[in-house]
Write a structure and sequence with these properties.
The chain is α+β, with helices and mostly antiparallel strands and 323 residues long. It is built from ten helices and nine strands. Strand 7 and strand 8 form a beta hairpin.
Length: 323
């Protein structure tokens, strides 16, 4: 793969790479490239389930729109043919100048700044347009995903988790069956808090707005990064997920002060009213949905029990600490 990558860099960007270092595991493979002309950061783009190559080009349009609106963002370098996405034989890349990025830091100052930055992002992206397909998610339809616990929604191509549990030999099976009555109660509470609730407005959502994607270099804010999961939807969903990122603890619990603080700062910046019942339901939903996905993958494809272990603790915490 390294040989192929080096050839691609030469053909796409005219770069002769002397050294290459791969960063830690992530959804997309990322590298530091060293050439005689300088250092670069390379992102090799991955096809998520249902992703089309047009999604990669839409990400570039997101970046260019943000830049036009005056938001801090890293712009990919252009290929020899003038495009921003390196495309060759069904392989896709984004290449950037290399920056030394500070380790993610989560304190009140960074949290406040992140909440205001997300508010600016949503405001700037309300008029975003692209000729490429960008998914739009309805919260009503999205809530259906949690019913994979007991039945098969029309949007899924996998069997219910209860049936998968009967077939699997994975040790998670016993724990999942034990927790199933609790998880059904979580699903009921989510429905009570979210079904039919009024949301404020739609915009392009970032949907991965955690400390890991707010880049600082030498203590100074550099850019917002990573639009792999961006889609159109209600802003409260994005805010709730970001608030979770900025308030979650290693033991699976949530710092409720930080969670509320993030939402308060965001809402003040955009002059929005806060419905804490909606945000509580969204917090449950976001955790529950990932747990369902992780359990499904663990039973049928890839072991993601570490995500289940974290999410089940978070759900127990949230069910016991309603805010």
């Amino acid at each position: 793969m390294t040989k192929q990558l080096l050839q691609d860099m030469k053909e796409l960007y005219g770069l002769t790479v002397k050294e290459i270092f791969r960063f830690g595991k992530s959804v997309n493979a990322t590298y530091k490239l060293i050439t005689k002309d300088g250092e670069y950061f390379l992102k090799e783009l991955y096809f998520f389930k249902g992703t089309k190559k047009e999604h990669f080009f839409a990400q570039v349009d997101i970046v260019l729109h943000m830049k036009k609106k005056g938001l801090n963002v890293l712009t990919p370098l252009q290929t020899k043919t003038g495009g921003y996405v390196g495309e060759i034989n069904n392989r896709y890349y984004l290449l950037y100048p290399y920056h030394e990025i500070d380790a993610p830091l989560n304190n009140d100052d960074r949290l406040n700044f992140a909440a205001n930055t997300l508010a600016d992002f949503h405001e700037a992206m309300k008029d975003f347009e692209t000729k490429y397909e960008v998914q739009e998610k309805s919260i009503e339809k999205d809530v259906d995903t949690i019913t994979l616990l007991t039945e098969e929604p029309k949007t899924f191509h996998s069997e219910p988790l209860v049936d998968s549990a009967k077939k699997t030999k994975h040790p998670l099976k016993k724990e999942f069956i034990k927790e199933l009555p609790f998880l059904k109660n979580v699903a009921i509470r989510i429905m009570r808090h979210l079904w039919g609730m009024p949301f404020t407005e739609k915009s392009l959502l970032h949907y991965d707005f955690g400390p890991h994607n707010i880049f600082y270099s030498k203590g100074n804010f550099l850019a917002v990064s990573d639009f792999d999961f961006s889609h159109f939807g209600f802003v409260e969903v994005d805010v709730a997920k970001a608030a979770k990122f900025w308030s979650e603890k290693e033991d699976g619990t949530i710092d409720l002060r930080k969670f509320r603080r993030f939402i308060y700062v965001y809402s003040k910046q955009r002059n929005m009213k806060i419905d804490w019942g909606v945000y509580y339901g969204l917090a449950l939903f976001i955790v529950m949905r990932r747990l369902v996905y992780a359990t499904n993958y663990t039973f049928t494809r890839k072991d993601l029990k570490f995500l289940y272990d974290k999410d089940i603790k978070t759900l127990h915490f949230l069910m016991e600490n309603k805010f």
